[in-house]
């Protein structure tokens, strides 16, 4: 391998390290909704649906309906193959929801993941639907957050077993709410009103998802947590800290952004693995609102539908959907395809390299369907990626082999040029042209590995399919670092390993990071060490620097890197043999340990 080629490979590897450090020290800003643009929309009162009345925008309940009452109100159980919880008859809130398929930790007795929580709990998180009055109607004429609904039909909300709630005011209006749920995570809410009065009434239906207090977040720069919104094909994201900086809109009594959606969209809150999203019927225009209520510290998203006029003796109804559950790729994609929910799959945070992360995960999911184990699926994915890149890798290895053949001629050029760097460069370039060798060809596969590495890191970090996914033995969560540690001799000593989040975990690494370092070291030993002392030292330290640098990364990512190194090692060995160059692996290893003898006098 020529000195220029070695320098380029070294620069590429060091650049990779710099990129990692740069991303950790200077995280990029997430895309956020434009407050200036939304503020301008908010000034157009005629084009913005009215805000829900007090008590419906997430603010605390009025004195005559304290939070304690909300906890004591009758509830309707929710029981599906994947969900359990209840609906409060006060306000008709969907505010108690647990995900039966997921636990907080990998321990078998760990608690089931709770998604929604009633008002009065540690951190209230709920969905609420209703009507905003206009004209002659007052707030007392429509159901609000403190309304006590009656159960008209149904006993337990389950797939194929809807429940219907009812409430009647003193002005001849009868309100109904039909709630349905499927076998996964989609609720369908149909709000209806029957006008038995003497005059027409006009109302605006709405939906709300509210969170009381700032929720606990992972707060990592490559992950978006907060508002996620699709508006006519445009995806907007806003973190919780960004919501606090929204422009003040007096008519909203809050900081808010308002977006008019013409045909298709949705809005809600996304966590790392879970999501609660309001989904108006596709094709229906609506107003999307993202709001922060100061003082009460309430984060809220809303959908406000076009106003409805109900004549005497007539009825009207509006239907909306609510997604509340895990961000499973297959489930969300099915909702997108079957229900026409625009780009619903983008509720999963695919990141900047979405053009790579999406197909990479799709292939990984497909492989998992055949293999049934995510660890072996990652190895199979690595094989496929290496097969796709093999033509480039082959040219790279051939170029490296030809560079090795030119080594004697290159040494002669160095002797002739001496200290004349310009002459050296000119003669080197002439030699490359005559022999038709590209010294940079060996670096192309390495450059391609960088975006693939980041894309796979993103996939493993954000997709729930990798959460708590086991591989073999002690690796019971491919989304978490290797739990083994040198600190306790990988479990042989009677004390626990350092916590993954502690500084000691960066030093006392596990089995897989060590295997990563060894695989990189073996790959280097296919070629003799560089003659330049500086290059030799850097190349000698590089595998062990990467070993500690990637030791705290997810096990799935380390597994990919180990598999990639071993496949690359095999490919390079075979290609070198096919070109008449038998790699002296053991000789190169021995040379690395052999000390230079002092020169004889």
UniProtKB/TrEMBL annotation:
<comment type="subunit">
    <text>Interacts with the Sec translocase complex via SecD. Specifically interacts with transmembrane segments of nascent integral membrane proteins during membrane integration.</text>
</comment>
<feature type="compositionally biased region" description="Low complexity">
    <location>
        <begin position="36"/>
        <end position="49"/>
    </location>
</feature>
<keyword id="KW-0813">Transport</keyword>
<keyword id="KW-1003">Cell membrane</keyword>
<feature type="region of interest" description="Disordered">
    <location>
        <begin position="36"/>
        <end position="61"/>
    </location>
</feature>
<keyword id="KW-0653">Protein transport</keyword>
<dbReference type="InterPro" id="IPR028055">
    <property type="entry name" value="YidC/Oxa/ALB_C"/>
</dbReference>
<comment type="similarity">
    <text>Belongs to the OXA1/ALB3/YidC family. Type 1 subfamily.</text>
</comment>
<feature type="domain" description="Membrane insertase YidC/Oxa/ALB C-terminal">
    <location>
        <begin position="374"/>
        <end position="577"/>
    </location>
</feature>
<protein>
    <recommendedName>
        <fullName>Membrane protein insertase YidC</fullName>
    </recommendedName>
</protein>
<dbReference type="Pfam" id="PF14849">
    <property type="entry name" value="YidC_periplas"/>
</dbReference>
<dbReference type="InterPro" id="IPR019998">
    <property type="entry name" value="Membr_insert_YidC"/>
</dbReference>
<keyword id="KW-0143">Chaperone</keyword>
<feature type="transmembrane region" description="Helical">
    <location>
        <begin position="543"/>
        <end position="563"/>
    </location>
</feature>
<feature type="transmembrane region" description="Helical">
    <location>
        <begin position="437"/>
        <end position="457"/>
    </location>
</feature>
<dbReference type="Pfam" id="PF02096">
    <property type="entry name" value="60KD_IMP"/>
</dbReference>
<feature type="transmembrane region" description="Helical">
    <location>
        <begin position="6"/>
        <end position="26"/>
    </location>
</feature>
<dbReference type="InterPro" id="IPR028053">
    <property type="entry name" value="Membr_insert_YidC_N"/>
</dbReference>
<feature type="domain" description="Membrane insertase YidC N-terminal">
    <location>
        <begin position="75"/>
        <end position="362"/>
    </location>
</feature>
<feature type="transmembrane region" description="Helical">
    <location>
        <begin position="374"/>
        <end position="394"/>
    </location>
</feature>
<comment type="function">
    <text>Required for the insertion and/or proper folding and/or complex formation of integral membrane proteins into the membrane. Involved in integration of membrane proteins that insert both dependently and independently of the Sec translocase complex, as well as at least some lipoproteins. Aids folding of multispanning membrane proteins.</text>
</comment>
<feature type="transmembrane region" description="Helical">
    <location>
        <begin position="503"/>
        <end position="522"/>
    </location>
</feature>
<dbReference type="InterPro" id="IPR038221">
    <property type="entry name" value="YidC_periplasmic_sf"/>
</dbReference>
<keyword id="KW-1133">Transmembrane helix</keyword>
<keyword id="KW-0812">Transmembrane</keyword>
<keyword id="KW-0472">Membrane</keyword>
<dbReference type="InterPro" id="IPR001708">
    <property type="entry name" value="YidC/ALB3/OXA1/COX18"/>
</dbReference>
<dbReference type="InterPro" id="IPR047196">
    <property type="entry name" value="YidC_ALB_C"/>
</dbReference>
